[in-house]
């Protein structure tokens, strides 16, 4: 009979709620897509004269008007990538690797939200090396004498305390002579490690 309302507010239908939900979702997904991109990218492949990829090349891009530097190293495939580079130009892109001449690309322009391809081709550097050998005779080394020597002067022999003035007494003053410890008479000498027998 009589329908009784609990509040004075109008009832919201489920289709209106569903519509609001989809509009909110659409706004949340569209907003990030509308963010402004203010940079560009530089990329390329570094190769040698034969076209083989060069890994480990230091690639540097310099924005000439501002002096802004961007640096990266090429991958195993020779590919390099510099992200978020300032838009415009001119840029000077150089590649450096030990044993190769530096490679350079000038007047490169980076466009907004795109990747500008800048391939670099490197040439082997010429290696020139000279070695100068200067020879002169050494005062200490005499080619006419081989081996080591030891000298005992006449004064040393005369001042040597000895009982019987034997050769063994004189030989003991020289480090190259040793008396054989197995000989009880101590008359056997070894000269420079060799036995006299």
Pick out its properties:
197 residues, alpha+beta, Immunoglobulin-like, four-stranded mixed β-sheet, four-stranded antiparallel β-sheet, 3 helices, elongated
What would you note in describing this structure?
The protein has 197 residues and is of the alpha+beta class. Among the domains are: 39-121, Immunoglobulin-like (Sandwich), CATH 2.60.40; 154-195, no CATH class. It has three helices and eleven strands. Strands 1, 4, 7 and 8 form a four-stranded mixed β-sheet that branches. A hairpin with a 2-residue loop joins β10 (189-191) and β11 (194-195). The N and C termini lie far apart (145 Å).
Give me a quick take on this structure:
16% of the residues lie in helices and 30% in strands. The chain has 197 residues and is α+β, with helices and mostly antiparallel strands.
Shape type: elongated
Structural class by SSE content? alpha+beta
The CATH superfamily of the domain at 39-121 is Carboxypeptidase-like, regulatory domain
> In DSSP terms, counting alpha (H) and pi (I) runs of 4 or more, how many helices?
3
Uncertain spans, ≥5 residues at pLDDT below 50?
Answer: none
Summarize the helix and strand pattern as letters. HEEEEEEEEHHEEE
Kindly identify the CATH topology of the domain at 39-121: Immunoglobulin-like
Instruction: State the separation between the terminal residues, measured CA to CA.
Output: 145 Å
By CATH, the architecture of the domain at 39-121 is named: Sandwich
Mean pLDDT: 82
């Amino acid at each position: 009979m009589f329908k009784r309302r609990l509040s004075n507010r109008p009832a919201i239908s489920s289709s209106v709620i569903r519509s609001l939900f989809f509009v909110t979702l659409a706004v949340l997904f569209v907003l990030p897509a509308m963010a402004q991109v203010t940079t560009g990218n530089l990329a390329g492949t570094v190769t040698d004269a034969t076209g083989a990829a060069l890994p480990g090349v230091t690639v540097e891009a310099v924005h000439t008007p501002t002096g802004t530097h961007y640096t990266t190293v090429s991958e195993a495939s020779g590919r390099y990538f510099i992200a978020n580079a300032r838009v415009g130009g001119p840029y000077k892109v150089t590649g450096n690797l030990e044993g190769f001449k530096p490679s350079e690309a000038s007047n490169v322009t980076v466009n907004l939200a795109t990747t500008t391809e800048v391939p670099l081709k490197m040439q082997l550097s010429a290696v020139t090396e000279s070695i100068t050998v200067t020879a002169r005779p050494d005062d200490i080394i005499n080619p006419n004498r081989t081996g080591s020597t030891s000298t005992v002067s006449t004064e040393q022999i005369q001042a040597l305390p000895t009982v019987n003035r034997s050769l063994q007494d004189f030989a003991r003053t020289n480090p190259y002579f040793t008396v054989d410890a197995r000989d009880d008479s101590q008359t056997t000498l070894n000269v420079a490690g060799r036995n006299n027998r």
